[in-house]
Amino acid sequence: MFDFSWSELLVIALVALVVIGPKDLPRVLRTAGKWAGKARSVANEFRSSIDQMIRESELEEMRKEVEKVATTDIGHEIEKSVDPKGELHASLQPTELTEAINNPAGASETSGPSTGEVVTTPAELPARESAPSEKVGSAEAAEQKPEKTPTAA
Does some domain include residue 57? Predict the structure, then answer.
């Protein structure tokens, strides 16, 4: 504690007994004990407030880390870790040669000379969906098939 040896404590007790007297010594020791208890409670309160401040600062750091992770663009981070120099991205960019192969007319869409139609290459046409299966007698089949109207002869 304060690094007092037993002999030093004995000397302090004898001096206190002579100076204070045997009649008032128990009251003084009781008062000193109360002060020591109050000092200990103040020290514990101070320690707990310091611990609370440490926990709050750790929580603040954790909150900042969570915000940092939440605002991070994961796709960009993955792309950066897979292709740090950007070589793969550059190799996938269209070049003049690939554009010339895909668009032999010089552009992806050109207008026709007289009709104003838009001409597209076969690669640009959307894939056709397979025809829906026809169900006999169902409402879907009736909606999909146009009804034949009898023509007057």
Answer: yes
